[in-house]
Amino acid sequence: MDKGLNLRQGRFVAAYLMEPNATKAAIAAGYSPKRAEVTGCELVRNRKVADALERHRAKAEDAVQITVEEIITTLRGIATDQTQPASARVSALREINQMLGHHAPKQINVREQGVTLVFHLDGSQPNDLPVEADSAIAPRPIAPNESAQ
């Protein structure tokens, strides 16, 4: 039990950490259900209880701490791994983009097996035609009578 807390306050802290609902935690700790809403509100504002909650939260965060840099490194590995499916690589790029606060492009081009796949991210309908692999400016649809090289 945390120092400075009585038995019910300690139970409240444990219950609140499991489900952060002050009313439910107060009832679980043994406080009167009729006054649980008020008691729960009072307990989360109580300095000793609030300090205990913060200490336990900090311990939990330290136990599962992963940095943004580690997440981005993992996603970068997925995005550049040619053995990953194109959809996984696109999803990884989208996540990196979002984490870095960049605006998402309207489309992402992924080269796979000599063909550039175009993923439209703005909800527009993709072109069903194959796309020229090495277009200088932007991918150009290949007409049905042309061959994909």
Explain what the structure shows.
With 149 residues, the chain is mainly alpha-helical. It folds into three domains: 7-63, Terminase, small subunit, N-terminal DNA-binding domain, HTH motif (Arc Repressor Mutant, subunit A); 66-103; 105-149, no CATH class. Helices cover 49% and strands 8% of the residues. The chain has six helices and two strands. The chain has helices spanning 7-18, 22-28, 36-45, 47-63, 68-80, 86-99, and strands at 107-112, 115-120. Strands 1-2 form a two-stranded antiparallel sheet. A hairpin with a 2-residue loop joins strand 1 and strand 2 (115-120). Helix 1 packs across helix 4 (47-63) and helix 5 (68-80) runs antiparallel to helix 6. The radius of gyration is 27 Å and the shape is elongated. It starts with 6 loop residues before the first helix and ends in a 29-residue tail after the last strand. Mean pLDDT is 77; it is low at 128-137.
CATH superfamily of the largest domain: Terminase, small subunit, N-terminal DNA-binding domain, HTH motif
Helix/strand-derived category reads mainly alpha
Report the CATH topology name of the largest domain. Answer: Arc Repressor Mutant, subunit A
Q: What global shape is seen?
A: elongated
Main β sheet profile: 2 strands, antiparallel
Strand order in space, largest sheet: 1-2
Outline of this structure?
The protein has 149 residues and is mainly α.
Question: What labels describe this entry?
Answer:
single chain, mainly alpha, 8% strand, two-stranded antiparallel sheet, 149 residues, 49% helix, Arc Repressor Mutant, subunit A, 2 strands
